[in-house]
Amino acid sequence: MANAMMEEFEALLQESFEIDTPEEGSVVKGKVIAIEAGQAIIDVGYKMEGRVDLKEFANPGEAPEIAVGDEVEVFLRSAENARGEAVISREMARREEAWDRLEKAYADDARVEGAIFGRVKGGFTVDLGGAVAFLPGSQVDVRPVRDAGPLMGLKQPFQILKMDRRRGNIVVSRRAILEESRAEQRAEVIGNLSEGQAVEGVVKNITEYGAFVDLGGVDGLLHVTDMAWRRVNHPSEILSIGETVKVQVIKINKETHRISLGMKQLQADPWDSVAAKYPLETVHTGRVTNITDYGAFVELEPGVEGLVHVSEMSWTKKNVHPGKIVSTSQEVEVMVLEIDEAKRRVSLGLKQCMRNPWEVFAETHPEGTVVEGEVKNITEFGLFIGLEGDIDGMVHLSDLTWEGRGEDVIGDYTKGDVVKAVVSEVDVEKERISLSVKAVGGDPFAEAIGGVKRGSIITVEVTAIEDGGIEVDYEGMKSFIRRSDLSRDRADQRPERFQVGDKIDVRVTNVDSKSRRLGLSIKAREIAEEKEAVEQFGSSDSGASLGDILGAALKGNE
């Protein structure tokens, strides 16, 4: 009996020797035999027990789930410590298990489940069921996330971007998962859309150039030019974020999955009736919507704008910026000048709604009218005078004075001087008004000579004696009689035989209105008198002497 028991004991002892004891640094199975002082006492077999803090059995942010009798896997760090207990770790066991699982998922490019549990510099920490991974801030969402609070502790899928077991580094992405699902959803939505289709969407974002509309998982761009037929300066004028709008699919790019949308395409095109509503040369009231360097845009109705070119804005203001003639939102009257339906352009005129000031001036100021105005500008060829109707008239140098040269007297004028002038010509087509300052008060030369013409005999007064002749005065007009014209006889062609103050009869040989000079000659008078006497009283062939003829002529006159 005793021998039998000894043999049985030896057999059991031998069996126990044959079973390998667990190797340190490996994962072993154990059983929870007790829970005390915040720790679980685990029997890992081989007459070894160890202790593990309860927190190692809990996921980040959760309560531990462990009870007596549960079987768990732990990592055997050491078979025996100073107290004779095995040194074990549930956390290290989970990590080893997790790394095996994650390496397989990384190799298969599969998603893994985890929960964000902490914030670190540049991103967040994620628990992947025992292994801790880094989630960069840029990989949290497709758009920057301001508040990650709602995502903390939430179990969700991640994509492993990089992992290094030796260094214990894992980098994951949540954004990759979202983009993938979004791409699938986008492809499905786009597959159900067709160009020309009318759909409803929600305005998600507004920019300077348009608005992004969510069509149910896919965004489309509603450009500002496709929002309305009229001019829209900024999308916020007609749209607000969160608003539901009806749009038409204009274009779908199958490669880039970009969708172009339009709102105005669902409304009637006002250009269909432009030609009928706005015949040429008709006048309409419009509103100035935009001002540029080359003109102003005027809205005739929503969706129909015309351009008033700077050259059609004013009769008189030629080199002025349009902003100085009209202002934005101003109501103006315009005339339709041209319509180009193909290019959707209307040319308008502002000045055509006002009378041509040169026509008005020509009607109210016929030639010869005396006007008064301010000197606006002085040039090398004359003066510019401001007149009624905001127009200018020009006084040429030759029209400044009767005596002397215009160049000599133009220096007497300064800007701002008020002067009188006579209208000498109005050219409406060339928009030119010619004025004459010297004509104010009449022409003293014409008045002085009166009915004097070539061949007339007039009486003049000697005012100066010179070597070459004599200077004489007739009604205030100065003339010069050359030595050769002082007498028929050469012996009497001496200036000195005259004295200042002498009154003598002379014959007018020339009337020069341009130079304002009379051509006078004593010699011509004598010759004319001789000719006349000969015709009346005889000829030189009859033997009568000149003295006889002149004597008879004089006697006859008496």
UniProtKB/TrEMBL annotation:
User: What CDD domains does UniProt report for this protein, alphabetically?
Assistant: S1_RPS1_repeat_ec1_hs1, S1_RPS1_repeat_ec2_hs2, S1_RPS1_repeat_ec3, S1_RPS1_repeat_ec6
Alphabetized GO MF terms: mRNA binding; structural constituent of ribosome
Keyword Ribonucleoprotein part of the UniProt annotation = yes
Pfam entry (one): S1
Q: Which PROSITE patterns match?
A: S1
Which InterPro entries does UniProt cross-reference here?
NA-bd_OB-fold, Ribos_protein_bS1-like, Ribosomal_bS1, Ribosomal_protein_S1-like, S1_domain
Any one Gene Ontology biological process term? translation
Is Nucleotidyltransferase set as a keyword in this record?
no
Domain of life of the organism encoding this protein: Bacteria
What Gene3D superfamilies does UniProt report for this protein, alphabetically?
Nucleic acid-binding proteins
Q: Which residues form the S1 motif domain?
A: 25-91, 109-175, 196-264, 281-351, 368-438, 455-523
Q: Which UniProt keywords apply?
A: Repeat, Ribonucleoprotein, Ribosomal protein, RNA-binding
GO CC aspect terms: cytosolic small ribosomal subunit
NCBIfam families for this protein: PRK06299.1-2 (NF004952), PRK06299.1-5 (NF004955), rpsA (TIGR00717)
Q: Family membership, please give it.
A: Belongs to the bacterial ribosomal protein bS1 family.
What this chain does, per the entry, is described as: Binds mRNA; thus facilitating recognition of the initiation point. It is needed to translate mRNA with a short Shine-Dalgarno (SD) purine-rich sequence.
Q: What is this protein called?
A: 30S ribosomal protein S1
Lineage, opening ranks: Bacteria, Pseudomonadati, Pseudomonadota, Alphaproteobacteria, Rhodobacterales
